[in-house]
Amino acid sequence: MSVKDLFLTEIKETPIQQDVAVSGTLPNWMSGTYYKVGNGKFTLPSGFQMNHLIDGYCIIFQYKIDSNKIRFRSKFLNSDAYKDAIEFGKPTHAEFGTRQYAHPNKNMISRAISSVFPTDLSDNNAGNIFTYRDQIYCNNEGFFLHQIDPETLQSVAKLDLRKAEIFATSGHYLQDSTGAIYNSAISAKLGMLKPLIIQFTAPTTNKSNNSADDNTFDLKNHVKSVATMPLSSMTSLSHSHSFGMSKNYFVVVHQPFTVNFFSFAAGQITGKTIMDCMHWDPEGKVKFVVIDRSTGNIVKTKYHTENFCFIHIVNTYEENDYLIIDIITYNSPENITCLMLCKLRNSGFNPNNPGLLKRFVLPIKNFKEAQTKKNLVKMSYTTATAIKVDTDHIVLSSETPFEVPMDIARFNEKLIGHKYRFLYSVALFQKELYKLDTETKEVKMWKSTNDAHFVGEPLFVPNPEAKNEDDGVIISVVAEAGKNNSMLIFLNAVSFSEIARAEFNGDVTVGNHGLFVFKKQN
Predict the structure, then answer these.
(1) What is the distance between the alpha carbons of residues 13 and 15, in angstroms, rounded to a whole number?
(2) Contact (Cβ atoms closer than 8 angstroms) between residue 422 and residue 435
(3) Rounded-to-5 percentages of helix, strand, coil across the chain
(4) Based on the number of CB atoms within 10 Å of its own CB, is 465 exposed (0-12), middle (13-18) or buried (19 or more)?
(5) CB burial readout 467-480, b (16+ within 10 A) else e
(6) Between 365 and 33, the higher pLDDT residue
(7) Which of 418, 413, 404, 338 is closest to 172 using CA atoms?
């Protein structure tokens, strides 16, 4: 079996909860629900086929875990994009690699407005899933959020960030210790685009009863800009699926993989997709924009490095006078273009440039008096360099800590923005999971013995009473190509050995990202 066998049959939802047998033993503390989002429907009842993997309509998976009992279900997200596509037989919202068709129920004026201003961006939010104010949301890189009912897996509220003058966001929200969450975004006020860092404010506590305030997400009162940046180009925006956040800084990485916003705005007239409007400059440099969180001001020092393309920043943290940024990088955007469904179905997934973890070290303090053309990095555990070109210009060279291919990496998210040691990674459509020790450079691997298996993102679930960073369990979905046999595997995060698995009959995808929500104690 090969990758193409994963896409020769359509995923079906499992709306009725089914009990799943568990072999092995899960820890007593592991009681809660594992949610995962992925792209599931690629062929509409009309026969119309979507073009790109991430155009597939969102399906949400739910695994209720209570000691050694698991119950599984899945539902397609009831987004407007999905409902319209089913009803009209074609996508009427702007997807990534599939062109948008005119909505039959819109009048000529509405269609004309949509052709000039991209009002019909898709709410097919299969990109990510997160919690805010004890509610579950799923998102993509557009301006819609769906609040998800944790039981029915259906959207109970569709939030339009344009009401807060937000036109686009990155795919990953980051939470700090206060409960506030942040994202890099693009505002579109009076037709002018401006890059921002936005904050969804932290819940406050009612002192009289020690309870959190209303969990309702109020766009007017809960969303604010905490930093602004100038446009790096008058015609295009750097693609930004993720950003970095440490205790004191935000980091936005400008890569030479950009979206031309004039082509994008005219997409409905020209028939171009979002992907058609993207441009890769193989000679372009990468720029790190560092922002002081306390003031919202951009750090004056310019940080540049060699050409690369990226999707995921793993983590960002400070140590002494340095800012350390770990990013999964590629030599080109080939891994995105390789995900056209015609290619996946005919030849599988065979990219020539696997993702690799790169570590960059940015001197942030006490370097003004240092000599030029000298390496400013004085850290024993990294070979990354930072060469001072002049007073406010530093050229970076990365370290590649591991020769392990990866596309997604997770870690103990209590350490977002803080120094961490362990990460857990997977490469797309592979059979291996990895545990990587950034201090010793030790690599541990789990691999399925079934050639038809493909594993998904390794999610770290921490032991609530943990004293060590890696005290917890890794969960990963395993899909079997050509069959509707699937399973969850559970690994001891310390030893990286399998402790349990749950096999079941039901369609799953390896999916995108997941979330574990602990069961509330009475």
Answers:
(1) 6
(2) yes
(3) 10, 45, 45
(4) exposed
(5) eebbebbbbbbbbb
(6) 33
(7) 413
Amino acid of residue 166? I
CA atoms within 13 A on the CB side of 299: 25
In angstroms, the CA 59 to CA 55 distance is 12
Can you tell me the distance from the alpha carbon of 165 to that of 223, in angstroms, rounded to the nearest whole number?
Answer: 10
d(CA 318, CA 361): 9
* Phi-psi label, residue 417: left if phi above 0, alpha if psi -120 to 50, beta otherwise: left
Q: List CB contacts of 190: < 8 A, sequence separation 6 or more.
A: none
pTM of the shown model: 0.94
Output the DSSP codes for 358-422: EEEEEE-SS-TTSPTTSB----TT---EEEEEETTEEEEE-B-------SEEE--GGGTTS---E
Average pLDDT of span 22-38: 96
The domain locations on the chain are 3-205+218-518
Q: Supply φ then ψ for residue 468, to 5 degrees.
A: -120, 150
Pair 286, 254: CB distance under 8 Å: yes
Distance in angstroms (rounded) separating the CA atoms of residues 230 and 115: 27
- Say how far apart CA 41 and CA 366 lie, in whole Å: 53
Residue written as token pair 């446009």: 231
- Annotated binding-site residue? 52: no
Q: Which two tokens stand for residue 227?
A: 């930093």
Residue 312 is assigned to a ligand binding site? yes
Close Cβ partners of 314 (under 8 Å, ≥ 6 residues apart): 326, 327, 328, 357, 409, 411, 423
Q: What does the pLDDT look like over 380-392, one tens digit per residue?
A: 999 999 999 998 9
Q: In which band, very low, low, confident or very high, does the pLDDT at 142 lie, cut at 50, 70 and 90?
A: very high
Per DSSP, the three-state class of 171 is: coil
Query: Does 393 show up as a binding residue in the annotation?
Result: no
- Identify the weakest region by mean pLDDT among 131-135, 174-178, 230-234: 230-234
* Whether pLDDT at 114 is above 70: no
User: Is 93 among the annotated ligand-binding positions?
Assistant: no
Q: Which of 205, 210, 209, 220 is nearest to 133 (CA)?
A: 205
Cβ–Cβ < 8 Å for 36, 511: yes
The gap from C-alpha 81 to its chain's centroid, in whole angstroms, comes to 20
Enter the tokens of residue 122: 């898709």
pLDDT of the residue at 176: 95
Percent of the residues in the chain that have a pLDDT greater than 90, as a whole number: 75
d(CA 232, CA 256): 11
